[in-house]
Amino acid sequence: MDATTNAARADKAPAHLWLAGGAGLLWHAWGCYDFLMTNVRDAAYLAQVPADRIDYIDGFPAWAVIAWATSVGCGLIGSILLLGRLPHAAYAFAFSVLGLAGMQLYQYGEGTPASMGTAAYWSMRALAWFVALALLGYARRMRARSRDRAGEGHTAESS
């Protein structure tokens, strides 16, 4: 194999990147859609939401709304950056985790209505944490690998 073949192989995105980035993109796109439809008060979207949950959301302080937006928005941006193989994806996912933490702190401190006390709701919260931390860890590993490859290439060229 020559250097051109090796360079082409190194530049090709691995399948797991497309899987992680695509799944993250879908997950956070749904989160952004949920945030948008909830905050613009789309009647058709909110028709299935229990009244106590809507009242609870209406009571969010501004910082909790910002935390929610940060969580889903930075997650979406991170997924796009990850698919673009850009190293800043890890930073976007870190902000997403911080936003998620802010929302959880509010929920634990304020309590939640009965409709949010179900096992299904808390399972989704656990899944949100798993996805957020997994994407952050994955983006950090990909960034480190990219740096390692760049360092190896630099060493090979300079010798």
TrEMBL record:
<keyword id="KW-0472">Membrane</keyword>
<feature type="transmembrane region" description="Helical">
    <location>
        <begin position="120"/>
        <end position="139"/>
    </location>
</feature>
<keyword id="KW-0812">Transmembrane</keyword>
<feature type="transmembrane region" description="Helical">
    <location>
        <begin position="60"/>
        <end position="83"/>
    </location>
</feature>
<protein>
    <submittedName>
        <fullName>Uncharacterized protein</fullName>
    </submittedName>
</protein>
<feature type="transmembrane region" description="Helical">
    <location>
        <begin position="90"/>
        <end position="108"/>
    </location>
</feature>
<keyword id="KW-1133">Transmembrane helix</keyword>
